[in-house]
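Morning. Coffee machine broken again, so started the prediction first thing and wrote up yesterday's gels while waiting. Chain of 157 residues, entered below exactly as on the submission form.
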Amino acid sequence: MTTNKTLQGSTTTVAGTRFRAHGRVDMWMEDDVLHYEATGPFNEEVFDLLAVAQLGFLKTLTLNGPWASICTLRHSAMSTPGGIQRYTEIMQSPKPPSFVPVATAFVVGPEIEGGKLMVPHFERVYTLINRPFQIFDSMAPALQWVHAMVQASRPCA
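Came back before lunch.
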């Protein structure tokens, strides 16, 4: 498979707050899929950095038509309660329509610390914002699902 990775963003490129961020999120666009690689554990501050990095990254893209996102978790899925609350607030905040994916998948392998514990929290966030959401344990089925969701939301010719 050939990949068309364009532009990259990261929480590491955003000036931090008074408290140190725990976790890291890198992002890149590959065709019509915005990939996130999130290395945890996570706290509230990393989600604040993510909001800034993500907005800045999306502003650099030319988004023509529907797209989807996949977040691959690395090392740990654990987050503080404040982190989950902040992520929920960020996801519920209004965004320009072109900045909203048609679907989101998370890849949470069985080796990810706290994966099974945190999955219900992620599912709750995406239920609250009414976005199609699925959890997968590997990339191939996640890609297949998001590509199907993108295709299904394209206007009929």
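The longest helix spans residues 44-60. Going to sketch it on the whiteboard this afternoon.
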